[in-house]
Description:
By secondary structure, the protein is of the alpha+beta class. It is built from four helices and nine strands; from the N terminus they run E-H-E-E-H-E-E-H-E-E-H-E-E.
Amino acid sequence: MRADLSSFPAYLHFASLSHSPDPTPHLGQRYDTAGTFLRERGNTVVCHLVEGSEAAAAITDARSRFTQMPGADKLAFTAASSLHMTLFQGIIETRRALPYWPSDVPVETPVDDMTGLFIDRLARFEPGDTFAVEVTHATPNGLTLDGVTERDRAILKDWRNRLADLLGYRHPDHETYVFHITFAYMIERFDDQTMAAWVTFLDEVTTEIRRRAPVIELRAPAFCAFDDMNHFEELLVFEPK
């Protein structure tokens, strides 16, 4: 029996073949059809999970459940040790174009040179206030997050705006960026029957995480370098005020 497509929340349409028939982004560039991650170097500012926290346990348990779901073979799972929330996107070698790159630096600049340049610029960065985040919902890619309160959301925006000003670029989605913790990338989108099973499952996951960890404990924001999506090496840590 065909699933009722109206039962799929709009924020899940990207995962549904019926709603999004186009090829999945990043396939063949970030990862292959076997789910193996490919070399794709860059840098970024992230907050890793606090090891040993209830939030980390709840999120790790949820990720494990994802791997057992119908259609899990259509997902390329990142390493559990890489779980983090991206605070501000850095540069990446596969996206050498404005406005994803500082306008005052040639787009041909090697990644290692860009990382060194950003470290120099970030030496002048003043960390912002502490913030608290919560899980808002789950998708086949992982979890979406937001500030718990309006003040938390304003603090997150302040961090991002000042990082953008200092590093010299803003992505087109700078104002609308959705905070998230990635579990996996889609190799293939789900058919309607698989998608219907995930809709119920993702609601359950969201409820369970919010019960166990109403606030997601994160380590201090850190500027990181990476070779692929499985490890983010902390180079500079910004302890909030």
